[in-house]
Design brief:
With 257 residues, the protein is mostly helical. Helix 4 packs parallel to helix 8. The radius of gyration is 18 Å and the shape is globular. The relative contact order is 0.12.
Length: 257
């Protein structure tokens, strides 16, 4: 994955390429502290894949990379809170994970690993010495950990596999706002994820494809399911809601500050 990201970075503006390469290198160097088990490997893949998806946003700038990852982190932080998975924010959780001497392999579930990290004190001196690329890497790692925890929670509730794809997280980050209305937004995200699973959608990448106007999977079927889920969770004008999401996702470069 580092080689793949390196290829992407080479095609970007120098400042963006440097940020992406730095964060990817940090993630690669820190991978050993997470472990080599199945869950740890999944988290590593999620973190690097998220960076890859963000880096491929048209006309991306360094500050936009950081902004999109931060927003994705705020969304997944809120989702975890609603599902009862309490922890630090994604960046601090990721930093604790990097500093931890106990690998993820030592725990049966991601939530158990998060609970372990909750008991650990962040070495703020080391954390404050991290540069921008390394802090971005910490945020990506924390998002990977928390996303896996959310998947496990939904799988436990609905008894079956469920995958929250990195492209879906980026789609959300491009189309929703966090801040004063974050609680309502995140609750909609949680209910949407559960509604998709209840209706047989096991991979959110197909929904991302539908919103972004890409091929891959039964986008028409999943789009219809998505609209029905939105109606069921109380979204008023569903057609307008979906069209606004599509516009923001597909034309995000027009809204980059």
């Amino acid at each position: 994955m580092l080689g793949f990201l390196g290829g992407i970075a080479a095609s970007l503006a120098p400042a963006v390429g440097s940020l992406v390469t730095g964060a990817a290198t940090f993630l690669s160097n820190a991978a050993a502290s997470l472990g080599t088990g199945t869950i740890a490997t999944t988290v590593i893949e999620k973190s690097t894949s998220l960076l890859s998806v963000v880096a491929q946003i048209p006309k991306i700038k360094p500050e936009t990379v950081i902004k999109v990852v931060k927003t994705a982190g705020e969304i997944i932080d809120g989702v975890c809170d609603i599902l009862g998975v309490q922890s630090d924010n994604s960046e601090e959780l990721g930093a604790k994970s990097v500093q931890s001497e106990v690998p993820m392999d030592s725990f049966k579930t991601t939530v158990e690993y998060i609970n372990h990290l909750n008991k650990q004190k962040l070495d703020e001196e080391k954390y404050n010495k991290l540069n921008e690329e390394e802090k971005l890497g910490c945020n990506l790692r924390g998002i990977g950990i928390k996303t896996k925890a959310v998947e496990e929670s939904i799988e436990s509730e609905f008894k079956g596999k469920f995958h929250i794809s990195e492209d879906f997280l980026v789609t959300l980050a491009k189309t929703v706002k966090t801040g004063s209305n974050a609680v309502g937004v995140v609750l909609d995200v949680v209910n949407t994820l559960k509604g998709l699973k209840e209706n047989g959608v096991e991979d959110t990448s197909v929904l991302s494809n539908y919103i972004e106007g890409k091929s891959g999977g039964d986008v028409i079927k999943v789009g219809t399911i998505f609209k029905n889920v939105l109606k069921n969770i109380g979204i008023g004008d569903v057609e307008d809601y979906v069209e606004r999401m599509k516009n923001l996702a597909r034309n995000y470069y027009m809204y980059i500050d």
